[in-house]
Design a protein that fits this description.
By secondary structure, this protein is mainly α. The chain is built from ten helices and two strands; from the N terminus they run H-E-E-H-H-H-H-H-H-H-H-H. The chain has one domain. It has a two-stranded antiparallel sheet with strand order 1-2. It starts with a helix and ends with a helix.
Length: about 250
């Protein structure tokens, strides 16, 4: 099983080698610029949040949001294109490569994309003095959990649809609200009580709170195992759905 998974990962990395320059701005440069402009610029007017400066408070949220957005973005058009336009997955199946190997190799590639962006972001955050705890070294692990929790179900969704217009709905009603209301820019406690369960249902919120706990050395709102458990539920459910969706798509 390991060799086909590695082969799938290698294929995606070879394709990415031709396109990596186009992703540097959105995955690395843009989050860093956003951190500087919002964390430093707006932070001067906001002051402290939770007893720390706004830059230190917002940085882990932006980092988790970066992992979330990269995972979602990578798992939409690329996956659908692999079935509908390039038919790369059909070629893999003829190799033959098992469906589970395709899904595993793809998720490993998404992890690679996310971890590169997160490590660079973490380095810049440390240079600005926004890391307040040695537990910050666990932030890439949290980012990996967020990436898997987001990429697995979105990959399954992309494999289940026939038209890319559905992605506009995904971005508008899932990704953007999650980014805005998952505690990235302000505490979820400031939301109306009736809206908070929607934030808690987002994998991004769990990632934001775990990242913040790691970089600031504070306890998250829920026990760590509860946050991790929620992310793993999204991941496992997404993998099961993705394997089923890939298998059905390749039989059509």
């Amino acid at each position: 099983m390991v060799r086909p998974v590695v082969a799938v990962l290698e294929r995606h990395l070879l394709l990415y080698r031709r396109l990596w320059r186009a992703s540097v701005f959105s995955a690395v440069v843009l989050p860093v610029l956003f951190l500087v402009s919002i964390g430093v610029g707006v932070g001067r007017h906001v002051g402290e949040v939770g007893g720390v400066g706004y830059l230190a408070w917002i940085a882990p949220g932006v980092m988790a949001s970066t992992a979330f957005q990269v995972a979602v973005g990578e798992s939409t058009y690329t996956v659908l294109g692999g079935f509908k336009w390039g038919r790369g997955y059909h070629a893999m199946r003829a190799a033959p490569v098992e469906v589970r190997d395709m899904v595993a190799g793809w998720l490993l590639y998404v992890l690679f994309r996310v971890e590169v962006a997160v490590v660079v972001f973490l380095g810049v955050t440390g240079a600005f003095g926004a890391l307040r705890s040695p537990w910050a070294v666990a932030a890439p692990v949290v980012a990996a959990l967020v990436a898997l929790a987001a990429a697995a179900p979105v990959t399954a969704f992309a494999a289940s649809i026939d038209h890319d217009s559905y992605f506009a709905l995904l971005f508008r009603f899932v990704m953007i609200p999650s980014t805005l209301f998952a505690g990235v820019f302000f505490p979820v406690e400031q939301l109306p009580q009736v809206v908070r369960p929607l934030a808690y249902a987002s994998p991004l919120w769990h990632g934001v709170e775990l990242s913040r706990a790691a970089t600031l050395g504070v306890a998250p709102p829920w026990p760590v195992w509860a946050h991790v458990g929620c992310l793993l539920v999204f991941f496992v459910a997404g993998v099961v759905w993705a394997v089923a969706a890939f298998g059905k798509r390749l039989q059509d």
